[in-house]
Design a protein that fits this description.
The chain is of the alpha/beta class and about 475 residues long. About 40% of the residues lie in helices and about 20% in strands. A 7-stranded mixed beta sheet has the order 14-15-16-13-12-17-18, with helices on both faces. Strands 9-8-7-10-11-19 form a 6-stranded mixed beta sheet, sandwiched between helices. The protein has a 3-stranded antiparallel beta sheet with strand order 5-6-20, with no helix packed on it. Helix 2 (about 60-75) packs antiparallel against helix 4. It binds nicotinamide-adenine-dinucleotide.
């Protein structure tokens, strides 16, 4: 199959191609067009032209969002098959991601936004209305390429913006597929998707006609994006990395929570921005929880997406695999105990088994940095205040959770965590209607819900005198 970009309603290739690697094999399985700077300009100009009419008809936009939801649903299996090859996740997880993308389109198709009236008296009315921004650059990472694209397209379109998107060079194909499906639904120029490397993202983000950059990816790139936004005072939303703590109190039943903790850390092979990345467990329940996690790690089936028994796929790319391995090796050098896993699986695929690491503390890279892979440090604590202090001693602030038999206590304690979402007795539960974003270096701004919609608007105060 030949993959093509979408610019101004047309499928476009450039004659230059980049390999896309199947991480389960460690070898190329397809190619995507290498977008050029001229393509960026063409796409942004097309988006700017389309904006002039797209912004005027909200009813049409809602109808199109609904049609997009349906079209994606009709293609769940074909998109999921490619997603599992380019990203590595098992087929069931890939299908769940595509269904999720469709759900996000449906949600925004139906999100009702009322203007806010601040005063309405004999003299005047003052109300706040929301207005679109113009051309939005949407830049996405490789862990959830399809649903994270939907998180940007749907609210940006509802608000009346047009979009030029650039997926990660590791997982461009599913975004190109989505673009080619949706291009017959929305007017030309409303959706443009370009494939290419990091430099293409930089060109797009800096284009003077781009009014907003909606970025999901690493902290390092997020800081660059913020720099690009300065000259034109472009709006930015930055959804960046996390190093989520989960704090397990002494009153839990280890048998009840261990499996949920395990999957909160290892879903999508740990490549989730809000995966549990540091686990703090009270000394009273530490031993059974570590033992339970190690048992689960050993029996979890790691393999290619093509094997229906696979529970965890490979790490998406070689660089990330090497990073996970180096963090575990560094922990070993600092005296860590490996309770399960601990070394890359042999073969050409990028497989690293779920790895449970104990006897580590702050100061070891695996604890301090975002591993974004299949390795979990489990730290013992005595006093919950110390656990909270350690959990907050980081630049990250995406998510966090408290696990306890006393829900009210959990709700109070989780608010001590410096993070955008605090969960109690679960983790990583994300819905279209709740705002999602990070504090500190985990980001700026919010996606999802009315907050995600508002992030694609500027507000205007309409102050009208009566009489
Ligand atoms: P990355 O920052 O390397 O790349 C993300 C995207 O930015 C890619 O499309 C890439 O090509 C592009 N890019 C890279 N350099 C650029 C530049 N200078 N200018 C413009 N674009 C550029 O991140 P990644 O490795 O693809 O993703 C993993 C990271 O994403 C992790 O830190 C993870 O936690 C984070 N993430 C965050 C969220 C969230 O919602 N907070 C969700 C998923 C992933």
């Amino acid at each position: 199959m030949e993959y093509s970009m979408v610019i101004d309603g047309r499928s476009v290739t450039t004659g230059e191609w980049d390999d896309v690697i199947n991480p389960a094999k460690g070898e190329p399985f397809a190619q995507c067009p290498r977008g050029t700077q001229a393509n960026v300009d063409e796409a942004v100009q097309a988006a700017a032209r389309a904006y002039t009419t797209w912004r005027t008809d909200e009813a049409l936009r809602r109808q199109k969002l609904g049609e997009c939801a349906q079209a994606i649903q009709q293609h769940v299996s074909d998109i999921a098959a490619v997603l599992s090859q380019e990203q590595g996740k098992p087929m069931t997880a890939a299908m769940a991601e595509i269904f999720g993308a469709s759900m996000w389109f449906s949600y925004f198709a139906n999100l009702q936004i009322e203007p806010e009236t601040l005063s309405d008296d004999g003299e005047k009315t003052i109300k706040v209305v929301r207005k679109p921004l113009g051309v939005v650059a949407a830049i996405t990472p490789w862990n959830f390429p399809v649903i994270l694209l939907a998180w940007k397209l749907a609210p940006a379109w509802l608000a009346g913006n047009t979009v030029v998107a650039k997926p990660s060079p590791y997982t461009p194909l599913t975004s190109l597929m989505v673009a080619n499906i949706l291009k017959s639904i929305v007017p030309a120029g409303v959706l443009n998707v370009l494939s290419g490397g990091n430099e293409l993202g930089a060109t797009l983000a800096q284009h003077p006609l781009v009014r907003k950059i909606s970025f999901t990816g690493s902290v390092a790139t997020g800081k660059k994006i913020m720099g690009y936004a300065v000259d034109d005072l472009k709006r930015v939303t930055l959804e960046l990395g996390g190093n989520d703590p989960a704090i397990v109190l002494d009153d839990v039943n280890p048998q009840e929570v261990t499996e949920r903790l395990f999957w909160s850390a290892f879903q999508n092979s740990g490549q989730v921005c809000t995966a549990v990345k540091r686990l703090y467990v009270h000394e009273k329940v530490y031993e059974p929880i570590v033992k339970g996690l190690a048992e689960l790690a050993k029996k979890t089936k790691v393999g290619p997406a093509t094997d229906p028994d696979t529970q965890l796929g490979p790490i998406n790319n070689k660089m990330q695999l090497e990073r996970v391995a180096s963090l575990v090796d560094d922990a070993k050098k600092h005296g860590a105990r490996i309770e399960a896993g601990g070394a890359r699986l042999e073969g050409s695929g990028y497989f690293y088994p779920p790895t449970i690491v104990t006897n580590v503390s702050a100061g070891v890279r695996l604890v301090d940095e975002e591993q974004f892979g299949t390795a979990l440090p489990v730290l013992k604590y005595t006093k919950v205040e110390d656990a909270i202090t350690q959990a907050n001693a980081t630049h990250y602030g995406l998510g966090g959770s408290v696990w306890t038999g006393n829900r009210d206590k959990g709700i109070a304690l989780v608010q001590e965590l410096e993070c955008g979402t605090g969960w109690v007795n679960h983790h990583m539960d994300i819905t279209p209607y709740a705002p999602f974003g990070g504090s500190k270096w985990s980001g700026i701004g919010y996606e999802n819900g009315k907050w995600g919609y508002e992030a694609f608007t500027d507000l205007q105060v309409v102050n009208a005198k009566k009489g």
